[in-house]
Design a protein that fits this description.
It contains 19 helices and no strands. By secondary structure, the protein is an all-alpha fold. Helix 1 runs antiparallel to helix 2 and helix 5 packs antiparallel against helix 7. The chain is globular, with a radius of gyration of 21 Å. GO terms for molecular function: NADH dehydrogenase (ubiquinone) activity; NADH dehydrogenase activity; ubiquinone binding.
Length: 452
């Protein structure tokens, strides 16, 4: 793991030393090599591997690290059109910020100590804020940055206090020691202090107000990284910390958080139906999926934890692809409104097919991996309490409706009166969409990867 972190740090140096005409080629070659190395290093069947005082990787962290190495270069590739009018120094700064996010993500997902995890968890805030406020779409990007910082910092202070209290009680913050022997004498208040930061970061319904603003105003790389990976830090931290609390608190958590998240996921799916902004609709869709995921993880069963991890991986790929498709429309029409971008099937046949594939994956239809994750989570939730079956059915119904709305609005009807006629895709866009399809195809054809 240290090999990958030091290699990424070296890439920051070569990024500034590379000639302006060789920046993208150098970055692509280095990231491709690191992706191959990370896949080999992190493909371990053991529960814990390469443990030291600060870093580890296991079956929970390894898929998320590989997902980070896969999608962050794709997000940088998606921003090449946005960076065409930027100076070389601004382009270097943009790519350096994405590499910093990748370094902090590796530290977060491989942390063996809760303090190291907290440092990596919070360090992603600064480069993400720069991406939103410096390369955002509109003047409202400053307000979106305020929302992002306010929600993150306010929710992280209780987490820091909770970690201090845990250290005073246990004299250590080692994650493996908690997993093997946890006798933490905690109170519901302490547990809530530790978990609230992850519920905001995911986010669940009710704590999600920062997310649509951040997505709408962020550049395409910011939206893809935020939806695909940064939100998963909340789910990952929730899994790591919830196991160290005692059983009475977990029973209280199940009785409150599970129905709240289920109904919140259903209501957020209903909100998606009312959206006319494409990026805002995809953002609210993420809130719905993550709410159901947290509801499942809260049950602490093998099925629900496995389903939650599968949903995190599959949703990361699909949501990034949806934002990538939305950006293809935005670069040509300068609008994210569904009505303005309608009728594109009369111009090109590739985009409707891709929208259909990723909309079905977002809906959770077989054989996509989202279907397996949702099946595991929904079966666990209904087995816990049959009354949760109602919001689950509502969520599935509303998700199907807004997925159909997206596909029909963008690909049916006549062209908008001032819509452009030249909408052929370039090689860069075909490459981006192919890089989103490949992991989905791999998970469909090799479901054993998810069971491991």
């Amino acid at each position: 793991m240290l090999t990958l972190i030091f290699a990424l740090s070296g890439m920051l140096i070569t990024l500034w030393l590379s000639p302006p005409t060789k920046i993208w080629a150098t970055l692509t070659a280095q990231i491709s090599a690191l992706l191959l190395i990370s896949t080999i290093i992190l493909n371990t069947p053991n529960n814990y591997h390469s443990i030291n005082s600060f870093l580890l990787n296991d079956n929970i962290s390894s898929p998320l690290i590989i997902l980070s190495f896969w999608l962050i270069p794709v997000s940088a590739l998606a921003s090449t059109g946005h960076l065409q009018n930027n100076s070389t120094s601004n382009t270097r700064l943009f790519l350096a910020l994405t590499l910093l996010i990748l370094i902090f993500l590796c530290i977060t997902f491989s942390a063996a100590n809760l303090l190291v995890f907290f440092i990596g968890f919070e360090s992603t805030l600064i480069p993400t804020l720069f991406l939103i406020s410096r390369w955002g779409m509109n003047q409202e990007r400053i307000e979106a940055g305020y929302y992002f910082v306010f929600y993150t910092i306010i929710s992280s202070l209780p987490l820091l206090l909770g970690l201090i209290a845990i250290y005073n009680n246990q004299n250590h913050l080692s994650i493996p020691l908690f997993n093997f022997n946890s006798n933490l004498q905690n109170t519901p208040i302490l547990s809530l202090l530790c978990l609230i930061a992850f519920l905001v970061k995911v986010p669940i319904f009710g704590l999600h107000l920062w997310l649509p603003k951040a997505h709408v105003e962020a550049p395409i790389a910011g939206s893809m990284i935020l939806a695909a990976i940064l939100l998963k830090m909340g789910g990952y931290g929730f899994i790591r910390l919830i196991f160290i609390f005692n059983e009475p608190f977990n029973i209280i958590l199940n009785s409150i958080l599970v129905p709240f998240c289920c109904w919140g996921g259903a209501l957020t799916s209903l909100i998606c139906i009312t959206q006319v902004d494409l990026k805002s609709l995809i953002a609210y869709s993420s809130v719905s999926h993550m709410s159901f995921m947290i509801a499942g993880i809260s049950l602490l069963s093998n099925w629900s934890i496995t389903g939650g991890i599968i949903i995190m991986i599959a949703h990361g790929i699909v949501s990034s692809a949806l934002f990538c498709l939305a950006n293809i429309f935005y670069e040509r029409t300068n609008s994210r409104t569904l009505t303005v971008n309608r009728g594109l099937k009369t111009l090109i046949l590739t985009l409707p097919l891709l929208w259909l594939i990723f909309a079905c994956a977002n809906l959770g239809l077989p054989p996509f991996p989202n279907a397996i994750g949702e099946l595991l989570i929904f079966s666990s939730i209904t087995a816990h309490n049959l009354s949760n079956f109602i919001p689950i059915i509502m969520g599935i119904l509303f998700t199907g409706i807004f997925s159909l709305i997206i596909y029909q609005s963008l690909n049916s009807g006549s062209l908008f009166k001032w819509n452009i006629l030249n909408i052929t895709l370039v090689e860069r866009e075909y490459l981006m969409l192919t890089l989103h399809l490949l992991p989905l195809i791999l998970l469909i054809t090799s479901p054993s990867l998810m069971s491991s």
